[in-house]
Amino acid sequence: MNVVKYLPWLAMGLTVTSQSCAEQVHAAVAANFTGAMKSVVAQFEQDTGHDVLLSFGSSGKILAQIQNGAPFDVFLSADQAKPQALQDKGLVQEGSRFTYAIGALALWSSLPDFIENDYSRLTSDDYNKLALANPKLAPYGLAATEVLQALGLKDTTQAKWVQGENIAQTYQFVATGNADLGFVALSQIMSKGHVTEGSSWIVPSNLYSPIRQDAVLLKTAKDNSAAKALLAYLQSDAAQQIIQSYGYTTE
Amino acid sequence: MFTAADLDAIWLTLRLASIVTVLLLIVGTPIAWWLARTQSWLKGPVGAIVALPLVLPPTVLGFYMLVAMGPNGAIGQFTQALGIGLLPFSFWGLVIASVVYSLPFVVQPIQNAMQALGERPLEAAATLRVGPWERFFCVVLPLSKPGFITAAILGFAHTVGEFGVVLMIGGNIPQQTRVVSVQIYDYVEAMEYGQAHLLAGLMVAFSFVVLLGVYGFQRQGSNSMLGVK
Amino acid sequence: MVASDQHAIHAAFKLSRSHASGEPFTLDVDIQLPSSGVTAVFGHSGSGKTTFLRCVAGLERAQAGQLTVQGEVWQKENCHVPTHQRPIGYVFQEASLFEHLTGMGNLAFAMKRAPTPTSDEGLQQIIELMGIESVLTRLPKHMSGGERQRVAIARALLIQPRLLLMDEPLASLDHQRKQEILPYLARLRASLKIPILYVSHSVDEIAQLADHVVVLEQGTVVAQGDIGEVFARTDVNALSGFDTGAVWQGKSVARDEQWHLVKVSFQQTELWVRDTGEALGSSIRVRILARDVSLARTALDETSILNRMPATITDICPDRDEAMILVRLDCGEEVLIARLTKRSLDKMALQVGQEVWAQIKSVAIVR
Fold this sequence. Notes:
The complex is a heterotrimer. Chain B is an all-alpha fold. Chain B has eleven helices and no strands. In chain C, the strands form four sheets. Chain C has a six-stranded mixed sheet, sandwiched between helices.
């Protein structure tokens, strides 16, 4: 379906290539990085004339797709384990792996004033559900359990957990009000350096291991100059500024 | 082999599908009967609404249900007013979502069977002193039995195979909302492909046997409608 | 007279609707029916006979109607007794047995809902009357068309109706199956005390079964009365044609053993007919088709024809066939119809009032 949808663009891309050396790159991106990536790519396309196709999804699904021949050039994972797994299988261009962003975790509620910039709400029993991403699958979920562990609240809260399959779904549970509280990616609730909706507590980074998000160039795209340019651009100051405005830190 | 979590998921799935099937037959039968008999202009719109889950992506359905059952949604406000609380992330929330999701698979076979009956058996029953209600239970139901069996099997199987809606409103709670399809998804996501294969294989075998049963049954029962005209 | 019978059936219906084909149809009848015997409602397809029967059963509701059966009002102004509250039995054109029940299951379905319990003997009697003992354990899909229809009739009887309605019960059967069921219907007629309304487009069936006939054409009644009376009319379009003929009711009075003949006596005439084994003194109904009657101006001695009698021409009317003519004759109390070519009529110079000899080539015993 995607192919059909993009056919006219593909055709146009080919025409453009013959005229101006612009190329196309197909990037698979972890869901939590959606907003930031769109901003970065808009700037990148403007600056270089290259054409970027973006596919967003959970890192686990993207991993399985790449292993089964999905035509991606670049993979921006939500963690380090999955790019590492691809590297171990020899599917990654050597030396291409780097950390493009370090995620931050926030406890968030769609209700204003529900959270008073601390975790006191979690110690009370006064909330219906606590949403977090599945720790087995999502790094943000793993980080959330580390935070609860560090606060000594893991056992007392567990009965109220509802798990999203990825951080996007977790956000949805909280945003629709079905869960009063949830551990979400700071990038999901932050826009231009501010949390715009509801109430939140930005979790101190010493409570969980850093959520390092790695990107790799896939071996199949080793000759794609647009792919290489995109990865280089992600490490530029301009891109890093955009990424930081979405609540990530960079190295 | 299967882990304790797998067995929980299998048991939960069977329990969910059984309860949903019973509810679907109870809810679907009057809808099917009405659709089969009515001359009303509402037949088109109602039939279309019942059939919507056939064409809508489950994620759309699941998303709307999440919103509707949430604290600001109509259903959510209703259940809160009743003192039940919110339905998402609960077994009964899944039950209700599954009833909506599998409704066309139950209504349509029953409706087809009832339409195939025509007027005549009802008229014959009327001339044998059978009142309208009894006519439905003593004549329409038994004569539509093949449709009911197909409906029950499809409703059950479709609920077992449901994924998108559960994902949206389930919350992956063991023994509550973590059904087999979600468990498989988790295995795939976690790169535990061996366990995923095991459960996925079970689903394939189950679905095949069910469909084989339906087709076998339909062929055998194809002449069992009232054989007049 | 029928009208004065307080136990009779009075049915008046006005109904109009447009057919699927777009042709409008109107039923407008007002009929008094006798409270016993078989009343045939006769007409071609589209004449409204089935609609009439369905109105009597309450399966269809006439826009305006009045129906009184044996003193009970079934329909009047805004009151319409629903079908399931009417003490009727109904036999549909196709045996509408419940396919999920065996033959016996279908009978039990009716017995369970009958006003009084059916005795074992009563059930056995009906099973024997319809000859369905051997098919009772079968599902309808494993029965022949005739068997299904006989089970359907038995089922309609077991509901203990006070009025039996039959809608062309033989129409969906082939000739052989018809012949298989007709005797059962004749036995039924003889053993039932309740009135039967029998819808048919077959003159044959009606000649055999009916006591009283109502002829419908395009939704209105064009003739009604006792069968002899109606069948003797030459002005009823639906009855004229190949099957036109008189029906006479008589009694066997003598038997000629040597020639296997029986003498049947009517009001003022006698006929010799084939001996079919009826006891002397039994009532016999014969049908004399117009095409089997020829006329002569004098009594001919040398002829192969057995039955002949003096008659007076009372009417000469056109046949549907251009070349033919129908001649109505009085033979004492009985009426006879002869079908001749126009040429013969002209050659013999026949006129109304003229005395002639009627020769009857064959006589069909219908009962």
